[in-house]
Design a protein that fits this description.
Blueprint: E1 4-8, H1 14-28, H2 35-39, H3 44-52, E2 56-61, E3 64-73, H4 76-79, E4 93-100, H5 109-123, E5 128-134, H6 138-146, E6 150-160, E7 163-173
Parallel strand pairs: 4-5
Antiparallel strand pairs: 1-2, 2-3, 3-4, 5-7, 6-7
Helix pairs in contact: 1-3
C-alpha cells in the first residue's frame, strides 16, 4: 500500500469530499434512497462550512483522497433518548460519520480516520461517540461493531423522499485499537 495518512481537511479537499460522498452514497444506498434524494445530497456549501469549522478529517493513500470523517459535538436532538430526555453525558457526546470510497475499503482508512477523530474529540473533552447508520447498511454497522460500538436501542425513521429510511444509533467509547 502506498503511504496512507489522515489530515485536517482544507478547502483543497472539498471537491474530493463532495465527490466521495455523492458517489459512495449512490452506490451504497441506491436501493434504500430514491434517486431524487441521492441527486439532492448536501451542497458544496454545507461541506465548506464543516471544513471551515474543523470538523472534517480526510484520509489519503498516496496522492488520492479516499475517505473522510465528520466529527463534532453531538447536537442535543441527535443524542437524546427515545423519550426526548438528554443523557447525563450529553455535553460530552460526539457525533461521527465516516465514509471511505468502496474501492479503497478494507485497507484501514476508516479505522485510521476514526482513531484520529477520537483522539481529537477526547482532547476536546468528549467522552463518548454516537453515529446513525441505516438499519439495512450491514457493512457500516459491522464497521462500528468492530470498533466496539453497539446499538443503544434508539432508532429513527427519516422521510427519504417519501420512502421511510430506518436508522439505528450506535454508541461507544472514544478508543480504537489499530490492527496491524
Amino acid at each position: 500500500m502506498a503511504d496512507a495518512g489522515v489530515h485536517l481537511a482544507t478547502a483543497a479537499d472539498l471537491s474530493e469530499i463532495v465527490r466521495i460522498h455523492r458517489e459512495t452514497w449512490r452506490l451504497a444506498y441506491a436501493e434504500l434512497l430514491p434517486e431524487e434524494v441521492l441527486d439532492a445530497l448536501d451542497t458544496d456549501e454545507a461541506w465548506a462550512l464543516a471544513v471551515r469549522q474543523g470538523a472534517v478529517l480526510a484520509a489519503t493513500e498516496g496522492e488520492w483522497t479516499v475517505g473522510f470523517v465528520v466529527a463534532s459535538k453531538a447536537p442535543d436532538d441527535e443524542v437524546a433518548k427515545a423519550d426526548g430526555s438528554l443523557p447525563e453525558d450529553a455535553d460530552t457526546t460526539a457525533l461521527l460519520s465516516v465514509l471511505v470510497e468502496p474501492r479503497w475499503g478494507r485497507r484501514g482508512h476508516g479505522t485510521r480516520l476514526v482513531a484520529e477523530a477520537m483522539r481529537e474529540l477526547k482532547d476536546s473533552g468528549a467522552t463518548r461517540g454516537i453515529a446513525w447508520v441505516p438499519e439495512a447498511d450491514k457493512a457500516s454497522r459491522n464497521f462500528y461493531e468492530r470498533l466496539g460500538w453497539t446499538g443503544d436501542g434508539t432508532v429513527r425513521t427519516l422521510d427519504a423522499g417519501g420512502r421511510p429510511l430506518r436508522e439505528v444509533r450506535v454508541s461507544g467509547a472514544l478508543e480504537v485499537r489499530l490492527e496491524q
